Amino acid sequence: MVLVQIPMCNEKEVYQQSIGAVCNLDWPKSNMLIQVLDDSDDPITQLLIKEEVQKWQQEGAHIVYRHRVLRDGYKAGNLKSAMNCSYVKDYEFVVIFDADFQPNPDFLMRTVPHFKDNDEIALVQARWSFVNKDENLLTRLQYINLSFHFEVEQQVNGIFLNFFGFNGTAGVWRIKALEESGGWLERTTVEDMDIAVRAHLHGWKFVFLNDVVCQCELPESYEAYRKQQHRWHSGPMQLFRLCLPDIIRSKISVGKKANLIFLFFLLRKLILPFYSFTLFCIILPMTMFIPEAELPSWVVCYIPATMSFLNILPSPKSFPFIVPYLLFENTMSVTKFNAMISGLFQLGSAYEWVVTKKSGRSSEGDLVSLIEKDPKHTRGVSVPNLDEMEKEEVRQKQRVSEKKKKHNRIYTKELALAFLLLTASARSLLSAQGIHFYFLLFQGISFLMVGLDLIGEQVE
Predict the structure, then answer these.
(1) Which end of the chain has fewer CB atoms surrounding its CB within 10 Å, N or C?
(2) 366 catalytic, yes or no?
(3) 67 to 8, 64, 122: CA distances (angstroms)
(4) For residue 374, is pLDDT > 60?
């Protein structure tokens, strides 16, 4: 018995593709219930999603629409509210798909069997694939990072430790494990990492499937990516403060405690952003103005080059982007460092949650292919039978587009650091500092491009 949940909030661009894909999962209808958990506060979006659910109900899908009046706790609160439904007791597993995720029909057939005859398994996590990874330079650079995350971090930890961070979507949970670990909590903005850590401390095991992929979108604008990364780096620091006493007191082995503290929390979320920001954005440019200070070439060149090379290995087709990747990661260290500090010291921005803007690029092609594969579901997909609604939506978009224009945002922190780095590069050239000049020049240009929002799509 499988419960499928699709949490969403004002995501008009992608709701059809996720609902359509989930309703076409290959699983006995009587053994599956789909919950569309709509937290939208836009009445038009609510109406569109509700009518989409009703159309799939008419097609025979076992699907329900839920909307919360009080939207406390963001996504965690939404999931917690859904799990409190009386009928949840009839289900053994729960699957979560964010609004832009489109599982293949065989997703459940390839994930749920891993729970069979192994009562210690709490989570089976699938890998993500990206429909827009080649859309622009920003999405290409994100793809490098996420390939390393899946291929190395999650796969290695899954094999050797039976533990990794839940990605918040495209995963199957044993409901008993969720309940025994305390369920969804709204105490941080990374509810997925929170439940994973608590389940690990309770002795549950995880399975990562690198060969099962679920298609989704990458943020295409720097503004959307920056807000996503802020949440992904402030939330873990919030959680670290809360979980550290529990980790120390837990009954898991010393090795697993060390992995949780130093590798899972501190290395990627605290040490690396701190290292990149302080060394390359502050210390190195300042040494150009202090003749007595000198940084050896191996600090400036070899360490970042080695780190970039290791990160790019899981995505060999991205090797031409190794230099832009290095420069962009150093540029992003400003956002990550700021997020890490706000999460560690519980500053106001640590609790900021902004839904990542989606473009819906994957919807048209996938819906057409879905129709071609299974003509009987064309009405449920709602491409040909929503003429009037689609015309009205187009008219609304035209009216809105007349008022809204896309533009570049200005990011003052990045521009300030661009000025510092370019000034330091000029100083380096005058003092014949050699290789430092090239690094400072290109890093300064990278900050300038990001500060003027010249990477990725513009925003409205």
Answers:
(1) C
(2) no
(3) 10, 10, 28
(4) no
